Amino acid sequence: xxxxxxxxxxxxxxxxxxxxxxxxxxxxxxxxxxxxxxxxxxxxxxxxxxxxxxxxxxxxxxxxxxxxxxxxxxxxxxxxxxxxxxxxxxxxxxxxxxxxxxxxxxxxxxxxxxxxxxxxxxxxxxxxxxxxxxxxxxxxxxxxxxxxxxxxxxxxxxxxxxxxxxxxxxxxxxxxxxxxxxxxxxxxxxxxxxxxxxxxxxxxxxxxxxxxxxxxxxxxxxxxxxxxxxxxxxxxxxxxxxxxxxxxxxxxxxxxxxxxxxxxxxxxxxxxxxxxxxxxxxxxxxxxxxxxxxxxxxxxxxxxxxxxxxxxxxxxxxxxxxxxxxxxxxxxxxxxxxxxxxxxxxxxxxxxxxxxxxxxxxxxxxxxxxxxxxxxxxxxxxxxxxxxx
Length: 389
Hints:
Elements: E1 5-8, H1 12-24, E2 28-31, H2 39-43, H3 53-56, H4 59-64, H5 77-89, E3 98-99, E4 103-109, H6 121-125, E5 128-134, E6 137-143, E7 145-148, E8 176-177, E9 191-196, H7 200-210, E10 215-221, H8 237-250, E11 257-261, E12 264-271, E13 274-280, E14 286-290, E15 292-295, H9 321-328, H10 343-346, E16 353-355, H11 369-383
Parallel strand pairs: 1-2, 1-7, 2-3, 7-16, 8-15, 9-10, 9-15, 10-11
Antiparallel strand pairs: 4-5, 5-6, 12-13, 13-14
Helix pairs in contact: 1-11, 7-8
């Protein structure tokens, strides 16, 4: 019996894995919760990547699409979707294989509970059962190999200092923007913005909001002395430019951007049409009244999908344990310096179940699409000699 592969998520890494299945002649299905492929990429479509086309097109994509974009230009998310991912999804090799509007709600081993048949051939031979939410109701499906490529963008972190929601945050969730906002409508962002986070998403948003004449930004950064993710002799100009402008904001270059370092949200509550936020700072509590809150404090994948599987998750990063250990021991915070980790670092105690792409990095922020494509290579190189179960 040929190995049937379930691929969760039709983003860049999921589509690359689908091409790998097609090339290997394995039956496969891609399950995508949204009504289009590359939904997460489209959600930040207005943002330009730091990396050029040559780092965002896999060798499989290039083989199937010889005229795919090339060169040193850095695409926006919208360009990546329109010029690469949509054409990949439309390839004859993937025809009829992508199920849109179909969310994988849970995964289990058929007939086995999480604690049963630990490390045995019996567990390895049992197929997976996938519970699916579809437009027509719930269904189940089976697979012999599962690749979770669902990403992280749908699961934002919360605002509290210890990683839990700050008091009042849950009640005001509808007032909080947790994804990179497009700023093409200045009226939408008029007034005072409370911006939280120090990573590249927050830096991008601070730069864009600072260009709006009717906007004032109160930028909350947890670190007392942020380095803004600076990389020595950075070869990615867009990334270096963000570091420089963020440092300039911290130095007071703009009278409409105030950077509060060493600060965190203690509580927030509604104050009429505005939100009153109490900050914890080294000088004691401080209150800010704002019109909008943009929280860009990072994202982490949905682990509830595999709650009934035997996944060894790192207690610190939430990435698979072996992969996390390899990444934490590698070359710092430069995404270009991430190592090729090998198949053993990608394996879980649950046989034939892999977490690939951004989700596999957990809370680590050094993921690069190139790393996801290399992960696909490693899985398929390991399974190529074994085409049956």
